[in-house]
Amino acid sequence: MITREQLALVIAEKLNGVQVVDMHTHLFPADFTGLLLWGMDEILTYHYLIAEYFRYSQQPYQEFFQLPKAKQADLVWRTLFVERSPVSEAQRGVLTILSRLGLDVGARSLDAYREYFRSLALAQHVDNVFRLAGVQAAVMTNDPFDAQERELWQRGVQGDPRFKASLRIDPLVLSYPQAAKVLQAEGYAVDGTFSGNSAAEVRRFLRDWALYIDALYMGASLPANFSLSPDSLSTRVLQEAVLPTCRELGIPLALMLGVKRQVNRGLGLAGDSLGKAEIGVVEQLCAEYPENRFLVSMLSRENQHELAITARKYRNLMVFGCWWFLNNPSLVEEITALRLETLGLSFIPQHSDARVLEHLIYKWEHSRAVIGQVLVKKYAELLETGWPVTEEEIERDLIQLFQGNFQTFLAR
Ligand code: RAT
Ligand code: ZN
Fold first, then answer.
1. Helix (H, G, I), strand (E, B) or coil at 235
2. Of all protein residues, whose CA lies closest to atom 9 belonging to ligand 1?
3. Distance CA 228, CA 173 (A)
């Protein structure tokens, strides 16, 4: 039995030992040429950091984005690391990465960091990053509407067993008429109004791709104002194509709700924002489609309480992650405590959303630390009642949170 004094150490040790299944990333295996982002300049030009760069720079957006990546990285480095202290979460993330890779953070030498990355062999570096991050498997975001990615799959990539696939279908749900053109070009007999044989053909497209890439789930990120209004094309595509195909294949649908795309177009990928989404959408889907399973993450802080409560009502709902603008230690702490108090251990506390390989290192180190602190508090409360807790039980619980809940939900 563990004492109150031993608790923090035991939890930290066990957490460091848990091999995470990272259920949503934007990473790819090394042989997905051009799609796997890694290295110093990619780390510095992460869209989270670009948004922060423009808090301080008056440079025209276009001028910045036209620069070669290395020049963009120079500007971000100077503005966010040399001219001021890097206290934001995304800034601190860069330092954690450098430090864990064994680089001298105190040297503040961009040249030395670049030199280090130039010296690496990618395959070994991928192994090293997975090891440092304690990640066993990472789920990719596979977009059949992206010509570059489609071509790679069709040409036949070898892949890497640590990288699992998920089928991302935003365009199909949100802009069906344009998506239909891609399907037509690929030989599916759909029309732009989703009439006639279109639903069956969209189902065939989804089935073909999900099976071909071995997708663990289908996923979409939906706007804050998304609703299931009865006659909208989005609703029909979901009801008549996406949900039936998920049922047929026995895979969940992952919904990330609450984005407001391109509130500032000049910022590119960094120009998306958030809004409070309608929890009724989640309730309606879970209630009307009990044979479907839904993995749901919501982007606004204001949605977190109702999302956790909704998961108490529907066992076909699995809440996951503290996503994007929620990935701040203070919010992860609050949300994790809320979920533990509301859902016990029946949720997926975090995913990395890594866009650059090395993000795995900082996102998981920072998340483990905060989630660990919350867990220490919760187990301490158990001890105070006289309930004994063993190391084995803590390990069992952590494995459930960081691997098991996702895997069991997939297998259900
Ligand atoms: O977190 C991000 O990097 C966002 O830009 C989005 O990619 C989001 O995670 C998404 O998957 O839509
Ligand atoms: Zn994402």
1. helix
2. 353
3. 11
Residues 6+ apart with CB under 8 A from 135: 19, 20, 21, 22, 162, 352, 360, 364
- 353-377 pLDDT tens trace: 999 999 999 999 999 999 999 999 9
Tokens of 366: 């920072």
Nearest CA to ligand 1 atom 10: 221
Residue 104: C-alpha distances to residues 40, 98, 112 (Å): 14, 7, 9
Q: How far is the CA of 411 from the centre of ligand 2 (A)?
A: 23
Listed in order, strand segments (DSSP E) in 142-225 are 163-168, 215-223
- Residue among 260, 328, 353, 356 whose CB has most ligand 1 atoms within 8 A, to mutate: 353
- Rounded to an integer, what is the distance from CA 389 to the centroid of its chain? 32
pLDDT in tens, 49-58: 999 999 999 9
Side-chain half-sphere CA neighbours of 71 within 13 A: 6
C-alpha of residue 59 to centroid of ligand 2, in Å? 28
